[in-house]
Amino acid sequence: MIPPLRSHFPKSTLPRASKSSVLGNHDYRGDVKAQLSPVLKKLDSRWLCLRSFVLNAEIAEFFFVDTNPFVDAYFENPKGHSYDWRGVLPREKYLANLLKDIESALRESRAKWKIVVGHHAIRTVGHHGDTRELVKQLLPILKANDVDLYINGHDHCLEHISDANR
Question: Which one of the record's GO molecular function terms can you name (predicted)?
Answer without folding.
Answer: hydrolase activity
